[in-house]
Amino acid sequence: MAGNREFGALIRRLREKKRKNDPTFSLRQFAAKIGISPTFLSKIETGDFNPPAPDKIKRMAELLDVDADELLALAGRVDPDLPEIIQTYPKAMANFLRTARELELSEEDIEALTRRIRKRKK
Fold first, then answer.
1. pTM confidence score
2. Are 12 and 65 contained in the same domain?
3. From CA 70, how far away is CA 73, in angstroms rounded?
4. Calpha distance 83→85 (Å, rounded)
5. Which of 4, 49, 54, 120 has CB atoms 3.0–4.6 Å from 43's, for a disulfide?
């Protein structure tokens, strides 16, 4: 089974960094916190197995203090909440996403739009 070496290497690097100050980030204990076996986590970290399910990736992100959406993207997945959000306003959301791509909006542009919309809603 071909895995995702980049994802696995990042998880290992982040986990090992946390482990320097917190022994509960050992492979076994981290796996238990996520709800997967240590063997499975080891195989993910070496890139031998594909990343786990989105809920497990979100838990990893929470524990490792990284953005869940970025970790999901690296794993080749999206947050399971997003399809429901898109399906609520399918035409508008699809139009917005296509327009953002068409205009080649940067991440910063999209973040600025988000902040502007949030500010307007307050």
1. 0.83
2. yes
3. 5
4. 5
5. 49
Cα–Cα nearest to 82, from 64, 66, 94, 65: 94
Provide the domain limits for residue 101: 81-121
56 and 17 assigned to the same domain: yes
CA distance 14 to 114: 28
Q: Are residues 69 and 85 in the same domain?
A: no
Residues 6+ apart with CB under 8 A from 25: 15, 16, 18, 19, 63
Q: Report how many domains make up the chain.
A: 2
Encoded tokens for 99:
């327009």
pLDDT of residue 2: 65
Residue 30 has pLDDT above 60, yes or no: yes
Shared-domain flag, residues 51 and 100: no
pLDDT at 25 over 90: yes
| Same domain for 106 and 59 | no
Calculate the average pLDDT of the chain: 94
